[in-house]
Design a protein that fits this description.
Layout lengths: L5 E3 L11 E4 L13 E4 L4 H4 L1 H6 L4 H31 L1 H4 L3 H36 L3 H8 L1 H23 L11 H25 L1
Antiparallel strand pairs: 1-2, 2-3
Length: 206
């Protein structure tokens, strides 16, 4: 097998979207028993395998997590509107908070999440860009395609979106006041979980 020779895809399950593979291994390595190849996909592979294009993109997992966080916020807000007084009466120290305190708490969590995302990812991308310029550009591409990177970004964006949704529903005043106590308390839980995700992410990229 010479370099740049083209062969039919031996995998029958993927042959419809990727019918051929090309050998890119140098002829200097002919003594090896293996060959390095790249797939050759047809132009309309997105029509043949529509899920592959979306699920492998960078924005799919973060967007999915953001949608889940929005749904979670709506569910907890509705639960607060129906049974929030019972939970507040049973655990006043855990769920008790006025409108001003709830707004301050959620604003702090949302702002900190975006600050963490901005600082962490900007420093990481700068470091990887310098490294890829000296070695190979695959380092940066692998970082973008890494599922852990996508999940971590989605978690931080999801917590930020969750806080915005809950913050929008808080009303002050004695007559028409509403504080989603359970949703606000769960926002604190998400913030603590975000700290754990940050520690895991730093350990992962190290």
């Amino acid at each position: 097998m010479a370099q740049y020779d083209v062969f039919t895809n031996p995998s029958s399950s993927a042959a419809d979207g990727i019918p051929y593979v090309v050998v890119i291994q140098s002829d200097l390595l002919d003594a090896l028993a293996t060959r390095l190849t790249l797939p050759l996909a047809v132009l309309d592979v997105a029509n043949q395998v529509p899920c592959l294009l979306y699920t492998s993109s960078f924005w799919f997992v973060p967007s999915l997590i953001v949608v889940v966080s929005i749904a979670l916020a709506v569910v907890l807000i509705e639960a607060d509107s129906t049974a929030g007084d019972q939970w507040l009466g049973r655990w006043p120290r855990l769920f008790g908070a006025d409108a001003a305190g709830a707004r301050a708490m959620l604003s702090t969590i949302a702002g900190s999440m975006m600050t963490v995302v901005g600082i962490t990812f900007s420093m990481t991308l700068v470091t990887l860009a310098l490294t890829s310029s000296q070695y190979t550009s695959r380092i940066l591409r692998n970082f973008i395609r890494d599922r852990v990177t996508q999940v971590v970004l989605g978690v931080f964006a999801g917590i930020f979106t969750y806080c915005l949704i809950v913050l929008r529903t808080i009303r002050g005043g004695d007559d028409a006041g509403f504080v989603a106590s359970v949703a606000v308390s769960f926002g604190v839980v998400l913030a603590i979980g975000g700290i754990g995700v940050l520690i895991f992410f730093i350990h992962h990229i190290a």
